[in-house]
Amino acid sequence: MSDHEHEHLSEAAQAELERLAECLGQLHDPATGLELDELDAEIEVGFEGDTVLVGLTLGYPCASQRDDWEARVREACLPTLKGGPLGEAHLQFELFSEITQTPAADVPEPLRGVKNIVAVASGKGGVGKSTTAVNLALALAAEGASVGLLDADIYGPSLPTMLGTEAVRPEVKEQKFFLPVPAQGLKTMSLGYLMTEETPAVWRGPMASGALNQILTQTLWCDDGDELDYLIVDMPPGTGDIQLTLAQKATLAGAVIVTTPQDLALKDAIKGVEMFRKVSVPVLGIVENMALHTCSNCGHTEAIFGSGGGERIAAGYETRLLGQLPLALSIREDTDGGKPSVVADPDGEIAGHYREIARRAAAQIWLEAGDDSPEIEVV
Ligand SMILES: Nc1ncnc2c1ncn2[C@@H]1O[C@H](COP(=O)(O)OP(=O)(O)OP(=O)(O)O)[C@@H](O)[C@H]1O
């Protein structure tokens, strides 16, 4: 709004906008469970013509939440406006995302432009870590972020199968760098792209971490000049030296730990949490996979592996349960068929779970980075 218009806005109207901003600050952000006031969110309130303009900027991608936010904003604003000096005004709402960057020193050239590196890890194999990583990456992209996915699972790189890119080989630049392979809206890189029939599928320790190191530091993620909001790294399963090296090599924004509800997997998940803590990587939360089983005959849902495990670890280890995925045939069929659930059925319930997990994990990165002082601007 121009200064000129400002002058014409009565003091009463100005005070009304300020009241509105205050009232918006108390809105609850579902991804963090906090009020906007407690977050580094930006709330802009203005008046132009006959319209009250409300802008909200959050630090995580949330395109699918626009309508929900608009409904929440309307519900909060309309009673405040009613009968006041701006009572006849229309309300226009806009939602923005501004993804912060994890500060890092000595970033190797290929990782420059990558704002946040997120490890998806599990204490043991077979819990659905890769399925979670690929769906998480696709869900972040569906929410509006630019996303890369690095399959660092040297023991069984599954990304090419999950994204239907088996026959693809990455381009090589200046005989030194790999260019990521575009797939389903993501920039992807996998050791699977580099393995030939002669390459051993099971690598030994030093060879494995060498390959991993190479793929991490030789993939030019932002060669096109665009930034990547998130690089999701599908880690090798376990909590040994390889995982530790990787966690130390790049400055990680955080780690997501995938577990199943069985006791053993949970004990392994705790090891994962402890490993990241040891190297000062924030644990963004826990994803409990195969948590519930829905009987395909009668539709009855049951926690066949026991319930509440992920929640218990999250509480005991001061982290959060980001979400739970059911044991669902469709998840397996989608991923094994080269179209993960977030893409295969974008409006389905499963995709909804993954998107919610993605928003919560990304919001947690924002929380870790933020100084928690809200910016409220009345223009
Ligand atoms: N929630 C689920 N419901 C049904 N099947 C699932 C679910 N999550 C994963 N799967 C299936 O389980 C198998 C193992 O999953 P995935 O490869 O993601 O596990 P992983 O932990 O990455 O394994 P590894 O450690 O071997 O890499 C796959 O066939 C996958 O499709």
UniProtKB/TrEMBL annotation:
Residue numbers binding ATP: G123, K124, G125, G126, V127, G128, K129, S130
Pfam families, A to Z: FeS_assembly_P, ParA
Domain MIP18 family-like: 21-83
Domain of life: Bacteria
CDD domains the record matches: Mrp_NBP35
Keywords tagged on the record: ATP-binding, Hydrolase, Iron, Iron-sulfur, Metal-binding, Nucleotide-binding
SUPFAM superfamilies per UniProt: Fe-S cluster assembly (FSCA) domain-like, P-loop containing nucleoside triphosphate hydrolases
General function of this protein: Binds and transfers iron-sulfur (Fe-S) clusters to target apoproteins. Can hydrolyze ATP.
Quaternary data: Homodimer.
Family annotation (NCBIfam families): PRK11670.1
HAMAP family linked: Mrp_NBP35
Family, as annotated: Belongs to the Mrp/NBP35 ATP-binding proteins family.
Protein name per the record: Iron-sulfur cluster carrier protein
Source organism of the structure: Microbulbifer halophilus
Gene name, Swiss-Prot/TrEMBL: apbC
